[in-house]
């Protein structure tokens, strides 16, 4: 049996795929460990998961504070802050902890999230093979290709940090999507394994009796961390949009006044909820989009920043949803888009085709197969 070390940032959406793949490797008898922020990892991993610290609570709180400032930015300031204030400093901060984990655990393979830059650096210096866990497919198509000066600036930052562009391994890149969503030509090292959803721990309560109170369609509204006034505006418009419809909606957010057919909760067991849903309204987070499509659910997508516009374009190009403008969409726009994806069968049919491609890709099982081949050389 082999030993696999997952290196992850303190971000739930980046940990979740590794929980599934790591769980599959554990089920096969391999030794698996994670290195990152224990407080983020523990609720998302199996009870007996082996965790090494690379981020303490103080640093994690600083990262959260920086994220709040990042969410308030617009335009190129978003990208500049993301790289200079978050990604590169996080890489430097995690190197000592990742180095310690490698020394103590002795992995055969390091599996690094694409935003955990310390993983490739430490693996390279230790002479270990490493694979990339691509928690979003957006960077694979290089969204900066139309801005060569910005692209060169990012590559210069990576060169200063690591001596080169280490975002993606030349041995294996696990992509939790499929060619049905991500267009392009890629090398043999890129493995489209589809969403990794098995072996996931969801330790969130939910009032399941609420689901059977009425025989009506059910919609999830999940917008990630609300972006200040713009986020509050969109959510209020979304609540107004669904309030007059013959359906129920579950909204992920802080408690607030809502129509009687709407349930607002700070967190939900999203995977467990998916089989009960008919559609999803989202900001375009890669995990939420792919989890919805893995269940054949059409989407209304209102992207905000980062990879979300690319993910939204993937959904629209696949025919599986409608895209809205986050900063301008009104209740009537949201209602019309939602009625379209619910009532026009072509959206559900397209989502079903993407679902079929995800099933064929293999999920955590296929990812574990590919990782075992890295050990075998």
TrEMBL record:
Database matches in InterPro entries: Glycosyltransferase_28, UDP_glucos_trans
Matching PANTHER family: STEROL 3-BETA-GLUCOSYLTRANSFERASE, STEROL 3-BETA-GLUCOSYLTRANSFERASE UGT80A2
KW Transferase (keyword) present: yes
Database matches in Pfam families: UDPGT
Source organism of this protein record: Lentzea cavernae
Record keywords, A-Z: Transferase
GO molecular-function terms, A-Z: transferase activity
The keyword Transferase is annotated on this UniProt entry: yes
Name of the protein: Glycosyl transferase
Domain of life of the organism encoding this protein: Bacteria
């Amino acid at each position: 049996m082999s030993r696999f070390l997952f290196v992850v940032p303190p971000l739930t959406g980046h940990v979740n795929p590794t929980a599934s793949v790591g769980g599959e490797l554990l089920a096969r008898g391999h030794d698996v460990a994670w290195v990152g922020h224990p407080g983020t990892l523990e609720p998302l991993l199996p009870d007996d998961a082996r965790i090494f610290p690379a981020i303490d609570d103080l640093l994690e709180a600083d990262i959260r504070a920086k994220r709040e400032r990042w969410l308030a930015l617009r335009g190129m300031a978003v990208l500049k802050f993301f790289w200079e204030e978050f990604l590169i400093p996080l890489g430097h901060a995690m190197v000592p902890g990742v180095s310690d984990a490698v020394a103590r655990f002795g992995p055969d393979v390091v599996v690094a999230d694409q935003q955990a830059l310390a993983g490739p650096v430490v693996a390279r210096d230790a002479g270990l093979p490493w694979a990339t866990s691509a928690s979003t497919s957006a960077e694979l198509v290089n969204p900066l290709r139309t801005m060569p000066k910005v692209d060169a600036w990012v590559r210069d930052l990576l060169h200063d940090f690591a001596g080169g562009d280490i975002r993606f391994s030349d041995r294996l890149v696990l992509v939790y999507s499929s060619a049905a969503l991500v267009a392009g030509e890629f090398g043999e090292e890129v493995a489209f394994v589809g969403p990794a959803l098995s072996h996931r721990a969801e330790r969130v309560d939910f009032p399941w009796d609420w689901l059977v109170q009425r025989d009506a369609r059910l919609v999830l509204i999940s917008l990630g961390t609300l972006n200040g006034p713009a986020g509050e505006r969109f959510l209020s418009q979304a609540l107004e949009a669904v309030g007059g419809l013959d359906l129920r909606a579950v909204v992920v957010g802080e408690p607030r006044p809502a129509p009687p057919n709407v349930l607002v909760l700070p967190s939900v067991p999203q995977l467990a909820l998916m089989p009960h849903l008919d559609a999803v309204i989202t900001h375009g987070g890669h995990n939420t989009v792919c989890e919805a499509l893995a269940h054949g659910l059409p989407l209304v997508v209102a992207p905000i920043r980062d990879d979300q516009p690319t993910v939204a374009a993937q959904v629209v190009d696949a025919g599986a949803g409608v895209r809205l403008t986050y900063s301008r969409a009104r209740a009537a726009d949201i209602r019309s888009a939602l009625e379209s994806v619910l009532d026009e069968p072509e959206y559900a049919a397209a989502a079903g085709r993407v679902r079929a491609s995800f099933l064929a890709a293999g999920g955590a099982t296929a990812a574990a197969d590919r990782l075992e081949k890295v050990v075998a050389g």
